[in-house]
C-alpha cells in the first residue's frame, strides 16, 4: 500500500484514483477507508462513486469465484479453497459495511444517504448468500433467522423508507410538470432515479433468491418498472441511457420470474 500516513483528504482522493487507474484495488480500498475516516467535509457524488468503485472491484471477482467453487464443493481441497475465498470475500463485505456506516454520518443530502444505505444493504446481502449456502448445506430449510439475512432485509427496507419519504416531500414542493421540457434538473426522488431503480433491482433479487418470495419480488419490480416507464420520456437524452439499462435488467428478471411462476403453477 502507498504511504498515506500524513496525507490529507484531497491527496487521499487523488491516490485512490491513481490506484484505480493502476488496477490496484486492494490498495484503493485501504486508501478509501482512510479517506472516509479522515475527511471533515460532507461526501460528494464523486466521493460516493469512488467509494463504491473501490469495494465493487475487490468484491465482485471474489463473489464470482466463490460461486464457481461452491458449485463444485465436493472434495477436501475444494472445501479448503472455498473457505479461503470466503474469508477474503467476508472481510471486504464487512469492511464495506463499516465504511458505509461512517459515510452515512458524513452525508448532508438524502440522495447520498440513500446511496450508502443501499450500499450497506447490498454487502449484507452478499454475506447472507454465504450464510444461506452453509445453512442449507446442513439440511436446514429456513433462512429467516440468519443475522445477515435480517440485516440485509432491514437495510433494504430502511433505504426504501428513506426514498419514499424523500419522494413525498419532493412531490409536495415540486408539483408534477406538465411537459417533458419542464422537468427540473437532477430530480433525485423521481421514479427514474438511478439509485432508486438499482435499490429496487437488488432488493427484488434478494427477496427472490434469499427470502424465496418470487411473488413479492415480481410485485416490487413491476411497480418500479411501470412508474419509471411512464416518466422516462421526461428525461434528458444524457440521463436516459443509464436508466434504460437498469430497467432492461429489471424487465429481464420479471420475464424469468414470471415464467418460473407459471411453470410451477
Profile the largest sheet: none
Q: Fraction of residues in helices?
A: over 70%
> Per DSSP, what share of the residues sits in E-state strands of 2 or more residues?
under 5%
Number of strands: 0
Mean pLDDT: 89
Flag low-confidence runs: 180-187
Alpha-beta content class: mainly alpha
Kindly provide the radius of gyration, computed on alpha-carbon positions and rounded to a whole number of angstroms: 20 Å
Q: Provide a count of the helices.
A: 9
Cα separation of the termini = 55 Å
CA-based shape: globular
Give helix and strand order, one letter per element, not per position: HHHHHHHHH
What does this protein look like?
It is a single chain. This protein is mainly alpha-helical and 265 residues long. It has helices spanning 9-21, 25-38, 45-71, 76-104, 110-137, 147-173, 194-209, 214-231, 237-264. It has nine helices and no strands. Helix 2 crosses helix 3 (45-71). Mean pLDDT is 89; it is low at 180-187.
Amino acid at each position: 500500500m502507498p504511504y498515506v500516513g500524513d496525507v490529507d483528504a484531497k491527496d487521499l482522493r487523488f491516490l485512490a484514483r491513481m490506484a484505480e487507474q493502476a488496477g490496484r484495488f486492494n490498495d484503493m480500498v485501504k486508501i478509501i477507508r482512510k479517506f472516509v475516516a479522515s475527511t471533515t467535509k460532507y461526501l460528494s457524488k464523486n466521493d460516493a462513486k469512488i467509494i463504491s468503485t473501490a469495494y465493487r472491484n475487490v468484491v465482485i471477482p471474489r463473489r464470482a469465484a466463490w460461486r464457481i467453487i461452491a458449485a463444485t464443493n465436493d472434495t477436501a481441497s475444494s472445501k479448503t479453497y472455498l473457505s479461503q475465498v470466503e474469508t477474503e470475500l467476508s472481510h471486504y463485505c464487512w469492511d464495506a459495511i463499516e465504511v458505509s456506516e461512517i459515510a452515512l454520518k458524513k452525508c448532508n443530502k438524502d440522495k447520498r444517504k440513500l446511496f450508502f444505505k443501499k450500499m450497506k444493504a447490498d454487502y449484507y446481502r452478499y454475506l447472507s448468500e454465504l450464510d444461506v449456502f452453509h445453512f442449507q448445506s446442513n439440511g436446514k430449510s429456513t433462512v429467516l433467522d440468519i443475522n445477515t439475512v435480517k440485516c440485509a432485509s432491514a437495510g433494504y427496507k430502511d433505504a426504501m423508507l428513506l426514498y419514499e419519504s424523500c419522494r413525498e416531500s419532493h412531490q409536495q414542493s415540486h408539483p408534477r410538470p406538465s411537459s417533458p421540457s419542464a422537468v427540473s434538473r437532477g430530480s433525485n426522488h423521481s421514479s427514474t432515479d438511478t439509485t432508486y431503480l438499482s435499490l429496487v433491482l437488488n432488493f427484488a433479487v434478494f427477496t427472490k433468491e434469499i427470502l424465496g418470495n418470487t411473488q413479492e419480488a415480481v410485485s416490487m419490480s413491476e411497480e418500479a418498472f411501470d412508474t419509471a416507464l411512464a416518466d422516462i420520456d421526461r428525461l434528458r437524452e444524457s440521463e436516459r441511457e443509464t436508466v434504460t439499462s437498469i430497467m432492461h435488467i429489471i424487465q429481464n428478471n420479471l420475464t424469468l420470474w414470471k415464467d418460473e411462476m407459471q411453470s410451477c403453477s
